[in-house]
Each structure stands twice: as structure tokens, then as C-alpha cells.
């Protein structure tokens, strides 16, 4: 007993249509990553205005920490201060250069008793743009040569160092 399998014949026009569809899908697939891209990039602290309005002079530092979260950085020079740094930039396409649209530094200044003394909100108009992503990695080459030459000079004078 022999079984025969049905032969599905595909016409050349159907094969060509399938090939065109496959090529179109292959060309469109990389663009799928661009769907939903809004071009807005937020960096740093994200805080709500209503939470900032809750911080009042005389409030203890622990309560500020609970309300606003951990600060981006702190300062102890000339008094205690906490800084919440945020930056918003935009770009038209995913791999195009970005342009800084908004930047804020919320500063919370404390007195010696660690109570809020005052708040300040610094924006782009108050200062300069902060570079969140430096593309240069510092190298210790020149400092090492300076230290090595100083040690070498010291060893030749004293004769105690093996350099």
C-alpha cells in the first residue's frame, strides 16, 4: 500500500510576493526599536513639586530625607547643604545629539541643629550646564611621572630610596 502526499504547487508570482514580503519585514524590523521613542531623557533626582512644597524651614533633616529622598550630593563647606540635581534633555531621533532643555538644582540648607534653614531652586538661568556624562577617562600618567621624578630626586640626594 503506497501513500501519496499532496503536492502544493506555488506559482512564481506567489513566491515573488512572499520574497517581497520577507524583504520588507527584514528592512522594517530594525525600525521597530524606534517605536515609542519620545526623545526625552531625564537624569538625576526626580522630585515632585508637591513634595518640595512640604519642606518648610525648621523641618529636621531626617524628615527632609523621608520627604525628598537621598540627595544627589551634599556639602559641608560653609554649613550643611543637600543638593538634588535633575536634568532633562531632548533629541529628535534616537542617535542624534541631545539638547539640554531644563536643569534644576534644588538646594536645602541646614543650620547647625540640622533643621532646614532655607530652600533654593537654581535653574539653567542661574548657572551653567552640568555634564552628567563625561566621555573622557582621567589618566594617571602625568601624575605618576611627577611623583616618580620627585622620589628619584629625593633618593639621589638622600641615597635611602632604591629608585
Question: What features would you describe in this structure?
Answer:
- The protein is of the alpha+beta class.
- It has a domain of 93 residues: Beta-lactamase Inhibitory Protein, Chain:B, domain 1, CATH 3.30.1450.
- 30% of the residues lie in helices and 23% in strands.
- It has 4 helices and 5 strands; from the N terminus they run αβααββββα.
- Strands 1, 2, 3, 4 and 5 form a 5-stranded antiparallel beta sheet that branches.
- A hairpin with a 5-residue loop joins β2 and β3.
- The longest helix has 18 residues.
- The protein is flat, with a radius of gyration of 31 Å.
- The N and C termini lie far apart (95 Å).
- The relative contact order is 0.12.
- The mean pLDDT is 77.
List the helices and strands and how they pair.
Elements: H1 12-28, E1 40-44, H2 49-54, H3 61-68, E2 73-75, E3 81-90, E4 99-110, E5 116-123, H4 141-158
Antiparallel strand pairs: 1-3, 2-3, 3-4, 4-5
Amino acid at each position: 500500500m503506497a501513500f501519496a502526499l499532496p503536492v502544493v504547487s506555488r506559482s512564481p508570482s506567489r513566491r515573488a510576493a512572499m520574497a517581497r514580503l520577507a524583504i520588507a519585514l527584514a528592512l522594517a524590523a530594525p525600525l521597530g526599536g524606534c517605536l515609542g521613542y519620545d526623545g526625552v531623557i531625564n537624569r538625576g533626582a526626580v522630585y515632585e513639586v508637591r513634595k518640595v512644597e512640604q519642606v518648610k524651614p525648621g523641618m529636621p533633616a531626617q524628615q527632609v530625607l523621608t520627604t525628598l529622598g537621598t540627595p544627589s550630593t551634599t556639602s559641608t563647606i560653609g554649613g550643611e547643604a543637600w543638593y538634588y540635581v535633575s536634568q532633562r534633555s531632548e533629541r529628535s531621533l534616537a542617535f542624534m545629539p541631545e539638547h539640554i532643555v531644563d536643569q534644576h538644582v534644588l538646594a536645602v540648607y541646614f543650620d547647625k541643629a540640622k533643621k532646614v534653614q532655607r530652600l533654593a531652586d537654581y535653574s539653567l538661568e542661574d548657572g551653567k550646564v552640568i555634564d552628567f556624562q563625561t566621555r573622557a577617562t582621567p589618566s594617571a600618567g602625568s601624575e605618576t611621572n611627577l611623583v616618580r621624578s620627585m622620589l628619584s630626586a629625593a633618593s639621589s640626594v638622600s641615597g635611602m630610596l632604591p629608585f
